[in-house]
Amino acid sequence: MEKILFITDAMSLNYQALDFAAFLCNLTHSKLTAIFLENLEYEERPPSALKSKAAESGATAQVDTHELKSQCCEMNIKHFKEACERRGINSAIHRDRGVPLQEIIQESRYADLVLIDAETSFANQRESVPTKLVKDVLLDAECPVMISPVSFEGIEQVIFTYDGSPSAIFAIKQFTYLFPELKQQPIQVFTVNNGKESDHKDVSNMKEWMNNHYSSVNFVKRKGNTNAELLEFLLTSKNSLIVMGAYGRSTLSNLFKPSHATSVLRLISQPVFIAHL
């Protein structure tokens, strides 16, 4: 992997997400390109909220909203550059002033991975997690997306959520090709039996592929409600990186319906990698 996009509101730099971005860059020796989104044309947030965010960055000048946003963005860019220098990370800055979703999708076309916080929003009111912007990014991004964890203490295992669909296999392969550095990590392949018979040949091929790429693979199979079993398993799996398939793109996939992925992003504080065909 060569290029990771770090998505941030220009008014609010998430330092925990930046710490995780730094971990990924050091792991993969990738360049970190920060996309500072200013949303100049369609700003919905009230001036009071913008001033509060600006104060967090250190921009406290009593100026008009436009100038305050510009000063805040410049301060956050400065903080970002300093943080990358301290960590020895090769970085770049893109200051995008258009419609946030359009800017992210366009940038994703030429990136290997998009890294975004599930709470990223430009709405005038607080949104539930994941926000509408994040859901739209997951639907339309032209490269895989990683949701930043709420807090990060390292990766002790990787969990592949698997239902036998093309989308699930695609996500697993994309992750494997982007993160060869994790091939020695313990792998959990999680699936839920929802009453359908498994294709034994397909399962056999899957196990062979996994064992060709990873040194320690464990297959976990549960019965019952997909969403409930998935959440129970993930909630008891600490310091994990979770890999999921299509976010709303495939009618074939049961395990990766938007409802399941949304529940995971809302309740699980660990990093989640999502890719779609």
UniProtKB/TrEMBL annotation:
Gene3D superfamilies: 3.40.50.12370. Residues 211-275 form the UspA domain. Signal peptide: none annotated. InterPro entries: UspA. SUPFAM superfamilies: Adenine nucleotide alpha hydrolases-like. This is Universal stress protein family protein.
